[in-house]
Design brief:
The protein is an alpha+beta fold and 87 residues long. Helices cover 39% and strands 41% of the residues. The protein has 3 helices and 3 strands; from the N terminus they run E-E-H-E-H-H. The protein has a 3-stranded antiparallel beta sheet.
Length: 87
């Protein structure tokens, strides 16, 4: 199977109340996925709100792998995933 790789900058937190944070997330989808499919995927992610996307762009596999490494080092995402697993 062939994959498409995406970089999405997403708002988390209380968007509009100046308590939000923008985080780059790196996603992988089947090759035929469109930007709309990625938007639907993002809306289903924990912690995101409606219209949470700042930007979405298609990237190559090397940028995706580098982005995954950066995600693992992101303090906000570490805390988000800890809370998700605790439930």
């Amino acid at each position: 199977m062939v994959w498409s790789y995406w970089k999405a900058v997403i708002h988390y937190g209380h968007v509009g109340h100046r308590n939000e944070i923008s985080v780059a997330r790196y996603l992988v989808t089947p090759e035929e996925a469109t930007t709309v499919d990625v938007m639907i995927l993002i809306n289903q992610m924990p912690g995101t709100k409606k219209r949470a996307m700042v930007s979405i762009k298609k990237i190559d596999s090397l940028e995706y792998l580098e982005g995954l490494r950066m995600e693992k080092e992101d303090f906000f995402l570490q805390r988000l995933f800890e809370r998700k697993e605790a439930r």
